[in-house]
# Entry
Amino acid sequence: MILIERGREVASIIKDRHDTIKAFLKIISVPEQIAERDACTMEHELDSITTKQIKNLVNFVKTAPEYPQWLEHFDEFCMTGEHPCEGKVRGSK
# Structure
């Protein structure tokens, strides 16, 4: 199959949206197969502004100098249902 230039552009945009959404889903601990399937659904339904902000978040997380503590807290919350910072004053460690 040969795509004309516009077709290549559209395919590239959709692939980028898919990859972005899948990366986001994996960050929030969605299993690989489910992330792949859900990304296929979501890539066609989300507004481009939403996708852009998801991409910004994914890039922010991936370029963080260290694994962000809030991701560790999110993992713990997913396992226990309780926020590990509960009872702490915001801004204190």
